[in-house]
Design brief:
662 residues, alpha/beta, seven-stranded parallel sheet, six-stranded parallel sheet, 18 strands, disordered N terminus, binds adenosine-5'-triphosphate, EC 3.6.4.13
Length: 662
Amino acid sequence: MWKTATRDSVCLLCRSSSLVTAPGRTRVGLEEATGRGLWTVQQRWLATRRQTRPQPARMVLSDRVDRPRPPPSSSRGGDATRKPRNNNDRPAGPFAAMNRTVANVGRDRERSAGFVRTRDPIPTTGGRGASSDNNKKRGGGGDRKKRDDKSFKALNMQRSLATIGYGARASVKEKLALVESFEQFALLPVLKEAVAGEVLRGLVDVKPTPVQRLAIPALLGQDVAGRGGKPARRSREMAAAATEEGEEGKVERREFLLAAETGSGKTLAYLLPAINALKEAEASDEMAKEYQVRLDVEKRIRGDAPVSTWIETFEPHPNMARPRVIVLVPTAELVSQVYRVAKALSHAARFKVRRVSADMDPLVIRNKLYSPLGVDVVVATPHLLASMARSDPFILSRVTHLVIDEADSLLDRSFAPETTAIVDRAMPTLKQLVLCSATIPRRLDSYLVERFPNIERITTPNLHAIPRRVQLGVIDVSRDPYRNNKLLACADAIYSIGREAARHELPGDEIDVKRIMVFVNERETTQEVADYLVSKGIDAVALHRDTPEHRQSAMLASFTSSEPLRVPKEKELPSTVVRTRRLANTKVIVATDLASRGIDTLAVRHVVLYDVPHTSIDFIHRLGRAGRMGRRGKGVVLVGKGDRRDVVREVKESMFMGQALV
Ligand SMILES: Nc1ncnc2c1ncn2[C@@H]1O[C@H](COP(=O)(O)OP(=O)(O)OP(=O)(O)O)[C@@H](O)[C@H]1O
């Protein structure tokens, strides 16, 4: 043990002064006392000074000043030769990979720090990715590029997403800065009021999200700075071209691709401009105005009699079963979700919105659509609407705005025939076609190039990136204690979430319930996993395509509500009573991809990926159920025998870097 006073050191154990006067390489004192290598007094003094300059001169000299801090001795056996521990060097466990400050991907830190994507050299956010990309832009990234081709080999091999160029993303950021408020949009005042007072009621300081900042002005044909309703340049050019070609009678149609990350408010981004156009068209619709006059007269004649009692005998509205706006979505659950937003807007903006989905009685659908009061907006799944349009083609005869939400699903093989049939039928009157999605697969990209070469692409800078506020933990199921028992690993992960939540339990008689989504790849697995979780005392249900539609909605209801879910605390039982093991503070839904698309699961903070998703598209959508609209989220992926560890590692690294997946 050594005590130093400026340059002189004295051994406090043996009081030897030999070292103090030994200026050169003298193997005495400290080295002999500790047995740790050859050190000179001068070297030690310099090292100590470097470490301790702000400290007072009199202090105890550490004999480990040149080494990393020793680990706490008991747990690690005091091994002096052990490598330094960092954030990644944690004990194993379901959440060992969380809250890291360093991505646990490969040992080659240098390689990951210089990450540049092959065909997508665009940093979606700032940070390290940005600097390396800027470096590349300046011409300094040649070597790195080669390294990074290798580093994202697995994702590149199964590349499924279309890429967005650097220039596009950079220019988008400039545009975003120009818009700060809904007031800047050339929307009707009632719609602005409806946003704050109905759709986003309860939120303070409501600002448009990036996709809304970009899409609403573009779809309104407004100058992007929000200075008024000037038609966009492209629209003017198209109009001029049509006039030159003598096509004045032809409807001028604009097509948009609206692509933004999950949970970023795309629904409002496409609904607001469509409803705005609807209200403007209504103001100049003479037939509708005349009908309204006749209806008002009839109401006066009928006195107090409710409209519903006589409307069937009155003349039908010109819009009966002839909507102007149609929104297509893939599932009944999404129909209800988009319908709710449109309905909230309709309270202030006064229009009639109906929904068409398989969970509704056919008679109810018919009555709503063919109501004599008319219909302005229909939210539907393509199968039902296409079949209705086959029997009554006039249903699509007045459509001016058609939105295809979750476009990558709806233009995929299973939906494409019905979706394109609707597009084709609506085309003659269509003024705006909007395709909307959080992921643009390459096949959709090629389809758009071929089918809609003039489509205007609106993409946000973070497209295809999983937000950094969502953390991804990896559980290696092949290791102890799971030994390839994925079911056990899944239950353990859920118990860990429950236990963690219990630590922050509320005072009082209630407990806060965490809502967790577990995603599997195959429909058959959902029930198996749910049953196992139930057998372990977890409240779990299975949701897949064969689950009746009305049951699906009921199951998802508590996952989509942003309200906290509380249950009474279980009563203490006498110590003689053995209670069956139960995790009271979690609620789990085990689902296939069906529940990963578009569902606004605001309540979900935790997602467990029971199976490694087949593509990066599935990663984006499944993890996108957590961390919506600026919230934090956690994902856990169970990696077992035969799973693509390389893909998981690369997804995790991309997430850490804030980069777009490929
Ligand atoms: N400007 C805003 N400010 C705050 N919250 C908003 C805003 N716009 C929309 N939201 C809320 O954000 C949530 C997500 O919106 P939405 O469902 O439209 O996302 P999305 O982009 O369609 O997601 P996904 O890609 O998963 O379908 C909703 O609860 C919505 O009410």
